[in-house]
Amino acid sequence: MFMNDYFIVFPEGDAQEVPARLPLNSLVDINGRELPLPLPTNRMIAFRVSRIKVNENRGGNETYHYLELMSARELDPFVRP
């Protein structure tokens, strides 16, 4: 059986499994779910998928989504006016 596993990797190096692949440069919450745009406020914990790495193995693939913490100033363009 061929398996696809997906993980998010936090800036500190901790990894957590997520149910599906995430697009590059998407904004996600701390659980790895995509945030709906526009955001209600810039005062929230949000990460950007900055890099994706795929490890191909004999029985399946492991996809790692590396996250970058976004500051309030970086979230300003995504906030509802």
Q: How many structural domains can be distinguished in the coordinates?
A: 1
The percent range for strand residues is 35-45%
Total count of helical runs of at least 4 residues: 1
**Strands side by side in the biggest sheet:** 2-1-5-4-3
User: How many beta-strand segments?
Assistant: 5
Secondary-structure element series: EEEEEH
Low-pLDDT runs of 5+ residues are none
Q: Major beta sheet, specifics?
A: 5 strands, mixed
Overall pLDDT metric: 95
Q: Give the proportion of residues in helices.
A: under 10%
Please provide a written account of the structure.
The protein has 81 residues and is mainly beta. The protein has one domain (3-78). The chain is built from one helix and five strands; from the N terminus they run E-E-E-E-E-H. It has one helix at residues 72-75; strands at 3-9, 15-18, 27-28, 47-56, 60-69. Strand 1 and strand 2 form a beta hairpin. The longest helix has 4 residues, at 72-75.
Summarize the topology.
Layout: E1 3-9, E2 15-18, E3 27-28, E4 47-56, E5 60-69, H1 72-75
What are the key terms here?
mainly beta, 5-stranded mixed beta sheet, 1 helix
Nutshell version of this structure?
The protein has one helix and five strands, in the order βββββα. By secondary structure, it is mainly beta.
